[in-house]
Amino acid sequence: MAVQGNQIRIGETEVKPGSQASIALPVAKLYTREEVAMPVQVINGKRPGPRLFVSAAIHGDELNGVEIIRRLLRLPALKNLQGTLIAIPIVNVHGLVNRSRYLPDRRDLNRSFPGSEKSSLAGRMANLFLNEVVAKCTHGIDLHTGALHRSNLPQIRANLDDAQTLELAQAFGTPILLNANLRDGSLRQAAAECGIPMLLYEAGEALRFDEFSIRAGVQGILNVMRHLGMLTKGRSHRPPAEPRIAQGSTWVRAPESGILRVLVPLGREVHKGDVLAMVSCPYGNEEHEVRAHKSGVIIGRSHLPLVHEGEALFNIALFNGDRPEDASESVSDFQQQLQTAPLFEEEIFT
Ligand SMILES: [Zn+2]
């Protein structure tokens, strides 16, 4: 998509080059007729360039992205921005208020694109977001977490068969990229139909802040902005290590109902047959091993010690050709690098 100048209009607000705006996009009111709005922050550089949207909480209980965007917007580097950054820290406002992944109509916003002005509540919200934000951008990053009681290792999911998207994903710099098919009704599919390369960042757990995931997210967005020429590369900037590309992933499921003890952390490489966890009965005299049925790297896990048989416990990223050890080593290098990154010196950790 060609970029013509960098004047941009969102809702009723015109944002001139070299200025910023906080815009409240009206969405469906509450029952009480109280107004509800989707918050949009626009930072428009003096010089034209790419228009990047960064969105969070499309699933209303996925909160790491809200904090990633807060930290991103505070960075002094944005003063010299080239192009436009459009940040939407809370897309699914109703879901967030209810601490729920879904909208009050029980639909999933990320399966409701493109929607229309006359469709369901979810479809209307999807349509507003698509028309007012996504369609006005040249690139996008959408921030997610695992579901309730499930954590994801920081990872990018994207259509890596598309050369432009692959470049962005490599620039983001998580050690593992997952080549993921487009899902019907997803924002990624809607963006692809508009010709906009888009990354989905998955990290951490629903309803929790996770410092590692937050840091990796802020760092990754900055890496993408530098790659696109929106920010200059500082002298201290280190390009991210070459990521490993997983062509798919598979879930290891509970062989039996019971009490779960997990034996391997996120990011660990595992081999077919390795014991990943134990499921025991409440009397303590019967135990079942949970074994990996494929080799790869653990990129998602359950945190809940209570499981029913068949429940998804571990998500293993699968690599064609690459040794999983390589991916696992780059995960620990990445964790170390983020622990000492000067960018995060001022943050307070819990
Ligand atoms: Zn999500």
From TrEMBL:
The keyword Magnesium does not apply. Its cofactor is Zn(2+). Keywords: Hydrolase, Metal-binding, Zinc. Residues 48-228 form the Succinylglutamate desuccinylase/Aspartoacylase catalytic domain. InterPro entries: AstE_AspA_cat, N-alpha-Ac-DABA-like, N-alpha-Ac-DABA_deacetylase. Pfam families: AstE_AspA_cat (PF24827). SUPFAM superfamilies: Zn-dependent exopeptidases. This is Succinylglutamate desuccinylase/aspartoacylase family protein. It comes from Balneatrix alpica.
